[in-house]
Amino acid sequence: MAPRTRTKSTKNSTATTGKAADAADAVDALTLSKFTLEASHGPAPKLFILPKLVTPEARIVLLPHPRHGRPARFIVSPEAGFYEIKKVSAPTSSPRSWLIEHCAKASDEKDSKSGDAVVDYGAQVVADPELHMATAIDPLFFMIPALVDGQPADESSARKRLLLSSDEYFDRLPDSSSHLTEILRWRDTRTLIERRMATVCDTVEAGDETMFRLNEEKLLKTMVDKASKMGEGGLPPSMEDKFVKRALEAPVLLSNTDAADCEIPNNEASDVVANAAEVPPDVVRLQRLRTAFNFICSSYLPPPLAEKLQRQLKNSTCTDFSALEDYLAKLARLRAEAAELSSLANVPQKRSSEDEVADAQAEKKRKLEEDKQRKASETRGVRELKKVNTSGMKKLSHFFKKT
């Protein structure tokens, strides 16, 4: 007898397949977009934010950075001047990208309802999340390394510095991987550089050519003016919080009740136990000025010159920092007294914690001694009875229970 074969009905499988197809169509309908993105070809584009003053004639060039002399990219526009390219990177912990939409109106198509020109949208995805911003930079910074190059170390011999033409200073700058020669062909750019050099130099007209010689007093005054302008209205929030608010913040001292429990050797401490008064506005302004000055020096000036200008600023007569210095000295005394008061207030707590540790150790030692004495007083018979296996045996009290 031939074996019978059983076949499974395909009704359920057909229904399941139909449901899956409907679900896929629904997902496709939800994920459809009116924008069609084409595959990118070639290197990925970079996103720049440029000032409105930058014209199409502007170029991205390589110039020696004023701080360290290594080549860096800048934007130079004959009409707008020089711009530094700052790169803002996204955090690596959260991958991101840019979706850039281009919008252009088509002149040959009209909307059937409104009659307006049809807007043609184009979109592009940039996988690189970096953002490049162009910020203005004074071209004077590019010439400062050449102006101080070869200057005498002795300040008394400053008058012996030679008067040189702008071309001689240009030749002092490193020319490897630099486009300085090309941008100097632009008349407006060359005039701008020479005009900025004149603000920090002594100049002499020799025929149809201007000769320059660095004047350190003018250079210091120019940097102070830049720092003052930078500090107007407050510094960026991160700098304002770290270098101004925290630097001028007085310590939070003990209250009067807490201070009364401590033995304070100095009678002046009673005046210290209070919250600090508001910082004078003039002190805040001077602190902002010093912070901005240090930032400019550490970002755009060669290290030896930056240190020299910072020393000259302390003894300069262009800005009086005596109010700031007095406040910082008073603040240092307050912090020292606050540290002393804090240490005195912590003495009772330290002693109580030490007493608790000593009591715990004494209790542990007492228990060990009691156990040792109890074991020593036991007889041999008692010790042998403890070794007997009493599992399954009834206790003696079991036989004296009420029935």
Structural notes for this entry:
- This protein has 13 helices and ten strands.
- The two termini are 79 Å apart.
- Strand 2 and strand 3 form a beta hairpin.
- The protein is of the alpha+beta class and 403 residues long.
- Residues 5-11, 254-265 and 267-276 have low confidence and may be disordered.
- Among the domains are: 140-151 and 161-215; 219-349, no CATH class.
Strand order of the largest sheet: 1-7-4-3-2
Outline the low-pLDDT stretches. Answer: 5-11, 254-265, 267-276
Cα radius of gyration in angstroms: 41 Å
Structural class: alpha+beta
Largest sheet entry = 5 strands, mixed
- Principal-axis shape: elongated
> Secondary-structure element sequence?
HEEEEEEEHEHHHEEHHHHHHHH
- Mean pLDDT equals 78
Strand-residue proportion: 15-25%
Number of strands: 10
Helical proportion, percent range: 40-55%
Per DSSP, the total helix count is 13
Termini, distance in Å?
Answer: 79 Å
Main location: nucleus
Keywords: Nucleus
Pfam family, one: Ydr279_N
Subcellular location: Nucleus
